[in-house]
Design brief:
50% of the residues lie in helices and 0% in strands. The chain contains nine helices and no strands.
Length: 262
């Protein structure tokens, strides 16, 4: 479960909120123009890109607050380092955004290259939509990381999750139509509160916790194939991981244990 912590940037009267570079990042995140909100979602007047991602993918509320802070500070700090000229009301600089994005997705791009896969970082052809799309990808990655719990010990597992969820994000924004339902594409695990935690993180975490318990002797098992974090991480470094599918197949080898030979 994701735990609540103090929110640095939430109260509008805090000094940090008045910093121009913080304002620039917050203003950029507030651009929700053109985003298709779920029909049953009650959109707030001050809704931003992180709230839209929460509504679409089912992230936890506290995680959204914390990763909003995280992303704003990442952008503001990079802005301070890259742009030395003081400005009263600066806009989010494209170079700052690209530098932050490249740093954040360095490991993901390396993973895609190693496995011979194209990234899911598809950008729109309309220039006015590019900044919004980049922020959505960054926000999505941080929200996945924020609820990943012990899956953070398997960083390429997070790459796998992001790869598929970013592709879903692209499908939603491109208004792609599902060949199965005939309706616009929606994230498979979205649509309800805490869906990402319950339907994605928890099933994978159970595999990790079961293997840890077996190795420690906490529980006894008749299975011989005991996997540790290194084993599971190695799985996501191979193209075999794509057999897991998306949505993830409950009958995939990843979720199974081999019977001990007699």
């Amino acid at each position: 479960m994701f735990h609540r912590r103090s929110k640095l940037i939430t109260p509008a009267n805090q000094t940090i909120m008045r910093y121009p570079k913080i304002q620039a990042a917050l203003h950029a995140l507030s651009d929700t123009r053109g985003l298709p909100w779920p029909k049953d979602h009650e959109k707030k007047a001050d809704a931003d890109l992180l709230e839209w991602l929460q509504a679409m993918f089912g992230f936890q509320k506290d995680n959204v607050s914390n990763q909003r802070e995280h992303l704003v500070l990442l952008l503001a700090n990079m802005h301070i380092r890259q742009i030395s000229k003081p400005e009263q009301q600066p806009e989010l600089d494209d170079h700052v955004l690209d530098t932050t994005m490249n740093k954040l997705f360095k490991n993901y791009k390396r993973w895609c290259k190693y496995l011979g896969r194209k990234t899911s970082l598809w950008l729109p052809t309309i220039p006015q939509e590019v900044q919004q799309r980049k922020l959505l990808y960054m926000g999505l990655y941080l929200l996945i990381w924020g609820e990943a719990a012990n899956l953070r010990f398997m960083p390429v597992c997070l790459c796998y999750l992001f790869h598929h969820m970013a592709f879903e994000l692209y499908g939603v924004l491109a208004a792609n139509v599902s060949p199965v339902t005939g309706e616009n594409v929606r994230p498979y695990y979205g649509g309800e509160e805490e869906a990402f935690l319950k339907k994605v993180v928890t099933p994978i975490s159970k595999i990790v916790e079961t293997d840890k318990a077996e190795r420690s002797g906490t529980i006894k098992s008749k299975h011989s194939h005991r996997r540790n974090y290194d084993d599971l991480n190695a799985f996501f470094w191979s193209n075999d991981c794509f057999q897991l599918g998306w949505p993830m197949r409950a009958d995939a080898d990843f979720f199974q244990e081999e019977e001990q030979p007699v």
